[in-house]
Specification:
131 residues, alpha+beta, seven-stranded antiparallel β-sheet, 7 strands, 41% strand
């Protein structure tokens, strides 16, 4: 299954970044896509083109600064957002990965779109929020 990972180094400790990204239900503090609704372990996001994306939290590891999620409709994918402390704990490496659950040939255009419309803008917004 194809996997796409986008990585950003941010000059802020991982614990501080986790305060923003660790809340799966509401990424509005760091991601440009608005959350329309969130209940328990699910959230519904609105994409710039008006599409609704529903996602469910699969695993949340606050101590390890990571979580995994899965889409409930639309694109068949699972994702993981993880933070790693670097530079003696003074910086953070943010790794956002998505894995499609279909054949690579079918999903290559979607992987590119996801990279440029979701992952990169999200990490850019996160970096700007802590810049």
């Amino acid at each position: 299954m194809p996997t796409l990972s986008v990585i950003a180094a941010i000059d802020v400790p991982a614990a501080r970044i986790w305060e923003a990204v660790g809340d799966f239900e509401d990424p509005s503090t760091w991601h440009p896509w608005p959350v329309e609704e969130h209940t328990g372990d699910e959230r519904r996001l609105r994409t710039p083109d008006g599409t609704t994306v529903r996602e469910r939290l699969v695993e949340h590891d606050a101590a390890g600064h990571s979580y995994r999620y899965r889409t409930l409709d639309g694109l068949p994918l699972s994702g993981r957002l993880a933070l790693e402390s670097i530079a003696g704990g003074t910086m953070c490496l943010v790794v956002w990965s998505v894995r499609f659950e279909s054949t690579p040939a079918e999903q290559l255009p979607l992987l590119r779109e996801l990279e440029h419309a979701v992952l990169r803008p999200g990490l850019r917004s996160l970096r700007e929020a802590f810049g």
